[in-house]
Design a protein that fits this description.
Layout: H1 3-20, E1 21-25, E2 30-34, E3 41-42, H2 44-55, E4 64-71, E5 77-84, E6 91-96, E7 99-104, H3 105-111, E8 115-120, E9 125-131, E10 135-138, E11 144-147
Parallel strand pairs: 2-6, 3-8, 4-7
Antiparallel strand pairs: 1-2, 4-5, 5-11, 6-7, 8-9, 10-11
Length: 148
């Protein structure tokens, strides 16, 4: 993401963060859980695939799915999914059936209210955002989108 975009969005995102976040601080970590009604949802298919990935993990730490938004893609912004073991201090964490989805604070405004799914097709199997109320259009592979 370009620094000029971050500078322009910084004050807006900071106010949204203060309004919609509850911060829980433990001895070693700071977790930010969303108290907003605009959650990022996970489908049953997404939860099931994450459980399969956790079951095959050799490390004792639980995996979480990380969703972030970057500039690029054929429509302007693109979704990026990663498996991670840590929650950062600026993450919003959404949980369903013990499975955690982390979204950094900047990416949250691009995906609030969205639904994350896991799809298996002939050409690929991947986590995708199937519904995003903040997007007005995107490419057919559902990996990039345009903002309203």
């Amino acid at each position: 993401m370009s620094t000029s975009l971050i500078r322009r969005l910084g004050p807006y995102l900071a106010s949204r963060f203060r309004k919609n976040q509850k911060v829980i601080i433990t001895a070693t970590h700071c977790y930010c859980y969303s108290t907003s009604t605009e959650r990022v949802h996970m489908t049953e298919s997404c939860v099931q695939r994450m459980k399969e990935l956790e079951g095959s993990a050799s490390s004792p730490d639980g995996k979480l799915l990380r969703l972030s938004v970057e500039t690029g893609g054929c429509s302007g912004f693109q979704y990026v999914f990663n498996l991670d073991h840590t929650v950062n201090s600026d993450d919003r964490v959404f949980e369903k059936e013990g499975i955690k989805l982390a979204v950094d604070n900047i990416s949250y405004d691009f995906v609030k209210g969205a639904t994350v799914d896991y799809v298996e097709e002939l050409i690929r199997s991947a986590f995708v955002v199937t519904e995003n109320p903040s997007a007005v259009g995107g490419c057919s592979c559902k990996s990039s989108f345009m903002m309203k």
